[in-house]
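User: Can you model how nicotinamide-adenine-dinucleotide sits in this protein?
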Amino acid sequence: MATDLRLPTDRIVRPDKDRFLNEVNPFEAMMSRFDRAAELLDLEPGLYRILRHAEKQIIVSVPVAMDNGEIEVYTGYRVLHNTSRGPGKGGIRFDLQVTLDEVKALAAWMTWKCAVVNIPFGGAKGGVVCDPLRLSVGELERLTRRYTAGIISTLGPDSDVPAPDVNTNERVMAWVMDTYSMHKGHTVTAVVTGKPVEMGGSLGRREATGRGCMIVMRQALKHLGMPMRGATVAVQGFGNVGSVAAQLLYREGCKITAIGDRSGAIHNEAGIDVDAAIEHAQKHRSLDGFNTGERISNEELLTADVDVLLPAALENVITTKNAGQIRARIICEGANGPTTAAADAILDEKGIFVIPDILANAGGVTVSYFEWVQDRGGYFWTEDSVNDRLLQIMERSFIDVLELSKRHKVNMRTATYMLAISRVATVHRLRGIYA
Ligand code: NAD
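Assistant: Here's the modeled complex, given as structure tokens:
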């Protein structure tokens, strides 16, 4: 099937930044978890200081000739948080709410995510402050190419490898790859991942994040002695991550009793026909009008009486305001940052088993790594081979984190950060400080 190069129209609507300013600040959310894990690891003060700082922060002005003849100047960022374990890896987002603080937090998040699944990448992130839905395809292409040229000194298969993120897609990655290749004078496919399959992308990449969620959720149910068959699941977000995870869980015998997207949510105690929901969502680009159950709000979905809650849409949806009402036994964080740091303690008190984002949704970056390996080797794997290797990495990572959490008597989130930080710290100790 040909690659769909359209830009997303059902883009992620991000919550108003002022809503719970301190509770949702992404940098604070990341740092408070980092601090707790660093303290438990008794991290040396010097290493602590190194890991709190981003290695490199680039800010570029991005002038774009608009279709109406005017020149607009956008601001773009690229941050490399830590590259001790390998090239920086992390997406590029186009969004009006992009800030340097946010990009820094997301870059650090990527350092930990890559370390948790033990792939040889560091953490990076980029963004351009813009509203891509107000740009024509030509304007978007010129913006992407000029931004790429602005940050080209950091990019490269051995130094910094971007991927799609909020409001960017395969087509944007194709432009980044082409711009970089034009500067180099030859085609360099491995400079980005999440490319169209026709030009060096990997089979299985589109489904990888949802598949990874299914794998770790299966492990969690097994650990808690709960059968997969018949386990009830509520899924918030029915895009790439949510719909694929829901479909795979459905195939594994789970009962998906609630699903939702930006149009609202549906609840059906008898179980929702996920294949029919996906068909509807593909046809209408939304779940609106898919009425095979009772309509509920997204807030009600989060507190539904289910075995597993899978937030797969937005950040900061589980906060101190609703954490006390959550009834799920397991939360599998498909989205990045769906739980605020302040809400962690409430979930802990309730005994909810949380599979944190940097573990639960790491299937995507894992298959991005496979894409990079395939591009560099010039040899492409079958989808079964991609899925088998993903299964091994996700299962191994879950077990590594679980063992650490038992050994240190900490929750899964803290154990995940401890595992990630200790892996990065070990490499720093081995490499020493270049002077
Ligand atoms: P997507 O754009 O494909 O889907 C997003 C879904 O969220 C859509 O169904 C949309 O309707 C829904 N949504 C938007 N606003 C909403 C709201 N206010 N309430 C409820 N639902 C809402 O995005 P995606 O790729 O599935 O990503 C979802 C989350 O997973 C994001 O946090 C993303 O950062 C994270 N993530 C994605 C990947 C990946 O490979 N796609 C990897 C790691 C993490």
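A couple of observations from the model: The mean pLDDT is 93. Residues 8, 10, 12-13, 209, 236-242, 260-262, 298, 312-314, 334-336, 361, 364 surround nicotinamide-adenine-dinucleotide (CB under 6 Å).
User: Helpful, thanks.
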